[in-house]
Amino acid sequence: MSQRLAQVNNHLNFPRGLLADQVAIITGAGQGIGAETARLFANEGAKVIIADIDAQKANATADAINAAAPNRALAVTGDILNDAYIQEVVDKAAAFGNGKIHIIVNNAGFTWDGVIHKMTDKQWDTMLAVHNTAPFKLVRAASKYFRVKDQEPRVVINISSTSGIHGNAGQANYALAKAGVVGLTRTIAKEWGPAFGVRSNTIAFGFVQTRLTGAKEKGAFITTPDGTKVALGIPGTQLNSRAGGAEPSKQTYPDIPLGRPASPEEAARSVLAVASPLFSYVNGETIRVTGGRNM
């Protein structure tokens, strides 16, 4: 039995958690799926870097984690499209982990919808920058902490969407970007798997209850670095049609076999599972977390 496989088997008892002594960078971790992922990782023994552009939310997430488990979370805030910030995240993660980084979860992102004939270059370029270029640059910046032979687990998880698998009207930019991370995932698996044992997988989410899938009328928005406000969410009429047109308390979501969207915590559990030793032989895959939608 190889030393690596023996180590995985030893971890199957999980006396100190699924991710004990590991260090994880989670982008977009100030809220939603990212925040829940950070909390679950910390509960399983990991130290987590809360990387987010929203300082207030990032610090609140880190404070909540540290209140339950001291010195498990560190907020590092800034713009993921800024190269200097990416390097700062990596440097602080390595310092937080005594010179090691084990997990990257490329979760940060948002939607900027528009039909093809009306979509601007800025909408197009921004989605590719956020969902493709930034994850690539973060992985590249952290490469020296992953291309090592210390027999410790190393995992990259890129968050995608079923829009990247099936396409989606009004989301040509987002769909292309989310399809693109699949290629990045598989390339990492092929380049870093053989010599270093790095696992790299994509998780494609379906309908998860976040600000990206809430009613646009609620007024959620994100501000781009140049000050542009981008409205988030789905127009109420479209949202109701997806939910069978019923009142919120009676919505059945007929296109989802489980009959409901996922909560952010349910979505985060799938990230934890993929990062954990339970998925030690899963590599280069796109794992759909959809409640059975689009089977």
UniProtKB/TrEMBL annotation:
<protein>
    <recommendedName>
        <fullName>Ketoreductase domain-containing protein</fullName>
    </recommendedName>
</protein>
<comment type="similarity">
    <text>Belongs to the short-chain dehydrogenases/reductases (SDR) family.</text>
</comment>
<dbReference type="InterPro" id="IPR036291">
    <property type="entry name" value="NAD(P)-bd_dom_sf"/>
</dbReference>
<dbReference type="GO" id="GO:0016616">
    <property type="term" value="F:oxidoreductase activity, acting on the CH-OH group of donors, NAD or NADP as acceptor"/>
</dbReference>
<feature type="domain" description="Ketoreductase">
    <location>
        <begin position="22"/>
        <end position="195"/>
    </location>
</feature>
<keyword id="KW-0521">NADP</keyword>
<feature type="region of interest" description="Disordered">
    <location>
        <begin position="239"/>
        <end position="262"/>
    </location>
</feature>
<dbReference type="GO" id="GO:0048038">
    <property type="term" value="F:quinone binding"/>
</dbReference>
<dbReference type="InterPro" id="IPR057326">
    <property type="entry name" value="KR_dom"/>
</dbReference>
<dbReference type="GO" id="GO:0006633">
    <property type="term" value="P:fatty acid biosynthetic process"/>
</dbReference>
<keyword id="KW-0560">Oxidoreductase</keyword>
<dbReference type="Pfam" id="PF00106">
    <property type="entry name" value="adh_short"/>
</dbReference>
<dbReference type="InterPro" id="IPR002347">
    <property type="entry name" value="SDR_fam"/>
</dbReference>
